[in-house]
Design a protein that fits this description.
Elements (H helix, E strand, L loop, with lengths): L1 H20 L1 E3 L2 H10 L4 E6 L4 H16 L5 E6 L15 E6 L2 E7 L5 H13 L29 E3 L4 E3 L13
Parallel strand pairs: 1-3, 2-3
Antiparallel strand pairs: 2-4, 4-5, 6-7
Helix pairs in contact: 1-3, 3-4
Length: 178
């Protein structure tokens, strides 16, 4: 009896955690309801089953959603649905961040450090204000004045018939005094 109740409790909790992390949406009205009626930021992932990068992003997206259910609402939309073209999705995967029913930012084709990028965008969107603090300016090193060139020693320029020293006025050959 105790084992059955414990097992049913574990199954119920695991089913709840699977449902709570990412909401899969297949129609536009449901997506719009989530975007417009949410008091938290909404992160919409547009993906396709046949897309390799989407498959790589899926566990990362679910992990972020599982770890941060209080910070945002996480939605997944299959890009093969007809209504997706209205959302200006040009490439896959695309993450669109909404706040107060309006698009706040968009990430497309997330590569390395996807988790950090998603978390930073959620922080920007959920904070309400974009960070207006500027990074402290680095002091620029003063340029050293250019060194004066020393007078070059005499250069020897050779032509086919004669050797000419540039700094001397005569154009004759020194060896034969022409």
């Amino acid at each position: 009896m105790f084992r059955k109740s414990l097992l049913s409790l574990v199954l119920a909790c695991s089913a709840f955690s699977l449902q709570a992390d990412v909401i899969e949406v297949s129609d536009e009205s449901t997506l719009q309801d989530h975007i417009k009626n949410s008091d938290k930021p909404v992160v919409v992932k547009f993906f396709a089953e046949w897309c390799g990068p989407c498959k790589q992003l899926k566990p990362i997206y679910h992990e972020v959603a599982e770890e941060n259910p209080d910070k945002a609402v996480f939605i997944a939309v299959d890009a093969d649905n007809e209504f997706v073209s209205k959302y200006n999705v040009k490439g896959l995967p695309t993450l669109v961040f909404y706040k107060n029913g309006k698009e706040a930012n968009r990430l497309q084709g997330i590569g390395q450090k996807a988790k950090e990028k998603i978390l930073s965008e959620i922080a920007k969107v959920s904070g309400g204000k974009m960070s207006k603090e500027k990074a402290p300016m680095k002091k620029m090193a003063k340029k050293k004045p250019a060194k004066k060139m020393k007078k070059e020693p005499r250069r020897r320029r050779e032509s086919r018939k004669q050797v000419v020293y540039e700094d001397e006025g005569d154009s004759g050959c020194k060896s034969c005094n022409r």
